[in-house]
Specification:
The chain is mainly alpha-helical. It has one domain: Orthogonal Bundle (Arc Repressor Mutant, subunit A), CATH 1.10.10.370. 47% of the residues lie in helices and 10% in strands. The protein contains 5 helices and 2 strands, in the order E-E-H-H-H-H-H. A two-stranded antiparallel sheet has the order 1-2. The longest helix is centred in the middle third of the chain and has 17 residues. It is globular and about 35 Å long.
Length: 105
């Protein structure tokens, strides 16, 4: 398994670059992952999506799809793409410390 260094810590990642161990995630890690992914500041809207995704994952064992995000998170599709360009569900899951959602390319 591959590793990445974030905030001086070696963290295991899966083939998609998402954290392999959910327990490695915290808000500082999320901020750094976002910055490395071209999102310099996580706003309250970003955190609403990240926290929603983590809540769904904790309850159901998988990250929600983009369709579900737009239906249940209170953030519309256009805004999701503004917050997390080039694949909002996939990018948000990565920053949230979760595996890629099922169905994401």
């Amino acid at each position: 398994m591959a590793t990445v260094t974030i905030l001086g810590k070696e963290l295991a990642v899966d083939a998609d670059g998402n954290l392999a161990n959910l327990s490695d995630w915290n808000e500082d890690i999320a901020r750094e992952m976002a910055a490395q992914d071209g999102i310099p500041n996580l706003t309250s809207q970003h955190w609403a999506i990240l926290n929603y995704m983590r809540k769904v994952f904790e309850k159901e064992g998988s990250a929600p799809s983009i369709r579900r995000l737009t239906k249940e998170s209170g953030v519309d599709t256009k805004t999701l793409y503004q917050l997390f360009p080039k694949g909002p569900a996939k990018r948000a899951a990565k920053i949230a410390g979760l595996p890629k959602p099922v169905g994401c390319i």
